[in-house]
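Thread: quick sanity check before group meeting

JM: Hey all, I'm pulling together slides for Thursday and realized we never actually wrote out the predicted structure for the chain we discussed last week. Dropping the sequence here so it's in one place. If anyone has concerns about the input, flag it before I start.
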Amino acid sequence: MVSSTTAEILNEPVSTGFVYGSNSSVLALNDMTAEIAPTGIPVLITGETGTGKDAYARLLHRLSPLRDAGFHKVDCSSFDPGRISSMLVSAKAADSLDSKIGTFYLDNIQELDLASQRALLSLLQKDEASEFSEIGAARYVSSASVNLEREVESGRFRRELYFRLNGASLRLPPLRDRLEDISAFTEFFLKRYSLALKKTPPALPAELFARFTSYSWPGNIRELENLVRQIVLFGDVRRAMKDIAPVPSSQPEMGIAHPTSLKTAARAASVRAERSLILEALERTHWNRKRAARELQISYKSLLYKIKQIGVSNEKQQEGRKTEVSL
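JM (edit): ok, ran it. Output follows.
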């Protein structure tokens, strides 16, 4: 259950962009975001281009204890570990509770080459706050528009860096999987760009919304935003309808259903694989969670969160606590 303040922020489109909707998976995602945000756990946000990863990163920051500190977006295609390192050093030198850096948002983490990955991993290992036993001077949120598990398996992304950044995972659904939210998004973007462009918002016919819900939206919410902006700018609904061609009747099965189904299967397989790795590590360490966290190369708090996610019995949890105390 989210607090009233959190609920207000979640439903404040001006500040959260497109982090809202009535889709059940999105409501569950928002609840999870509200639960994770107050912690220092590093968060990995994944989703197709245009699904709102930046907006969720900013939402995590707004709901965190570091909300009054800075939000630093780092473009991973031109990554500079020295910039992050110097800011952390300055904060520690100040030695003050007020010396909070804020949130480092590592955008498109898959863009890092192996040398930059090694530099980032070294920085995180040196930064005591990156263990997230409590809220430190900085919090790390990263995003990816590709399947990072596959990048790890192919050797293009360092496994230890993946586990360190993926303390908790938020997977954003594509717009084609949340068509019931299109009307709310459209209304929001109409108001935003009518004000920005000082134009009267045009009336949108029901036929346009019918066309919207039959379209696959490869560019997701960003594509819808761009389209609504053009409608406001040019006042030409018919032009927009030409740009949004309905999916041919033979295409849903080939072009939409199967890819969505395969993605769902891949995600489920990833969750099962992670659960298996965690349980194997716990068994090897006789349910000593601190040792298991070290073996998995993730923080202790991240492991506790993942154990909660996969659903481990209370008896096993008690066994782990006894083992940790005895060693």
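AS: nice. The longest strand covers residues 138-144. The mean pLDDT is 77.
JM: adding both to the slides.
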